[in-house]
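Subject line: Sequence and fold of a protein, written as structure tokens
Enclosed: The protein record, placed directly beneath this head.
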Amino acid sequence: MADARVNMTGKELWAQLPHSPDAYPQKLDLVRGLVLVIGFSAEGYRAASFLDDRILAPATQGGWLPLARVAEAASGIRDPRPLHFIFHTGHVGSTLLSRLLDETGAVLPLREPLPLRSLAEAHDVLQEPESLLSESGFNAALDTTLRLWARGYDWTRAVVVKATSSAGRMAIPLLESRPESRAICLNLQPEPYLATLLAGQNSADDLRAHGPGRIRRLLARRGKPPEALHRLSSGELAALGWLVETASQEDAMRRFPERVLAVDFEAFLGAVSEYMDRIVTHFGLPRDERYLAGIAASPVLRRYSKAPERHYSPEDRDRQLQESRRDNAAEIRKGLAWIDRHAG
């Protein structure tokens, strides 16, 4: 995209920022103090499983704008919508839950927005010498982001942000920043979680990639180092993920017991209508009896939520779990033993 075109569309999108989610802050560069704002749409939000670079295409219009100018535009937002969150431990149905909320016709979904990752990384070092931001600078960037996320369309009754699994460590700062916000913490018990993670084709690489950050977070809690990352087996790496992300959820539930609702994904699958009733009520959405009566038969439940073109039903999941329990029995045992050693 030529610079002139970026500058032109950037100006247009900056003018839209206070008024419409069609101007979307896709990326936050805290080193340069810039925000990538792109043109988007209600249909794009609903279709996207991830609001990362996979939504960018050659035809995407947008431009990098100074964070200060974006903050100025955000301060002019009127009629913000209630802003809520889904936190999860990863591979526990968070995208499915987000898509079922889409079916209400009242929710604008933000699935795994990249700026949340940038803010989480900045928050990790906020009190350290290497922090690029002062506390006030961080709070200003967070406030700007939350203001922009709270924009809605005419039909939007609430905006629900589905975080990445590791961004669950931001639950307390986010909920402190917005006292009216509520959250769901979605999880599984350790054994089905390990079986689920170890069934994935790319799980080993994904677990290793998240490993360094999770080891650091565990070290911050324990005050003494666990085993070195390179010594952990795949089952133990999965156990590390469950333990650290579950601990972040429990922190949020203790801090905000009335505002955070814990949901076990296996229990959810066994009583979809009942749980969606609780979740819709928790988020203050309109309670539609027709929606609640039909949601357990929604086609969404029979598609793979991250790639809806693929068939994937609860029965498929059950078969996959049984195969994983058979094929990965030794690693599941190692992971459960690792949790027993470190959970205290």
Summary: The first strand starts at residue 23 and ends at 29. The chain is about 50% helix and 15% strand. Residues 1-8 have pLDDT under 50 and may be disordered. The CA atoms of residues 22 and 107 lie 15 Å apart.
